Amino acid sequence: IPDPYLDDNEAVLAWIGRCTWSYSSTFSWADEGSDRVDLVADGLDTVATVVLNGTTVAATRNQHRSWRWDVRHLLREGVNELVVTFASALDHAEEREWVLGARPHSYVHPFNALRKTACNFGWDWGPALVTAGIWRRIGLESWSGARIAAVRPIVRGGRAGVTGDGGRGVTVHVDIERAAAAGEAGVEAAAETAIEVVAAVAGVEVRAVVPAGETTTALALA
Predict the structure, then answer these.
(1) Residues near 146 by Cβ (< 8 Å), separated by ≥ 6?
(2) Model confidence over 103-144: pLDDT tens digits?
(3) How far apart are CA 149 and CA 164, in angstroms?
(4) 199 and 205 Cβ atoms separated by less than 8 Å
(5) Which segment of 5-9, 20-24, 166-170 scores lowest on mean pLDDT?
(6) What 3 state SS string does 5-34 have?
(7) Beta 133-134 vs 47-52: how paired, if at all?
(8) Rounded to an integer, what is the distance from CA 126 to the centroid of its chain?
(9) d(C-alpha 49, C-alpha 86), whole Å
(10) Prediction pTM value
């Protein structure tokens, strides 16, 4: 395609944003006995359908978040095929505007009807180039037992600190994902095991135990 930032190429290339785009790949996989194998997509732009070995895994509608799906049951020894198909984000935004009703927005396209980078639809400083594709890492993650799903440190006080002087400190909230719910065949031990979590900030270390069956804890480093 010609340089989209030259001359009137913005108009010449408008067809790209109206098309469906499909990305496919084959890969080899061998079962190593992990409890879970997740397909992790850190960024899909935007109206995507994810298909693994002919089975639809998910449909996404948000460029600004990551995704994780348990796909162990869909994988097969040897060659596997992953296909990610992107429908036109512009068509989808216009359809949502028709369903939800018009909302005030700048310029021509209803960028506020979809969770996608707004300037892709055109701005005063740039052309309307409606992108589609896998824009961050995508791949398989294998794990067993449990994993850290999220960490949220909350700092108290005017300055970051963990000494406790002046009421300052850090509370670290940790979410744990277990491989399966209690009682599920083959991995029930993962749900019925207590898990120790350790948080270390600026030389201060705190430990906490997440009881069996629970998935969250908070560690206060006062």
Answers:
(1) 176, 177, 178, 179, 190, 193, 195
(2) 898 888 999 999 999 999 999 899 999 999 999 999 999 999
(3) 28
(4) yes
(5) 166-170
(6) CCCCHHHHCHHHHHCCEEEEEEEEECCCCC
(7) unpaired
(8) 27
(9) 7
(10) 0.85
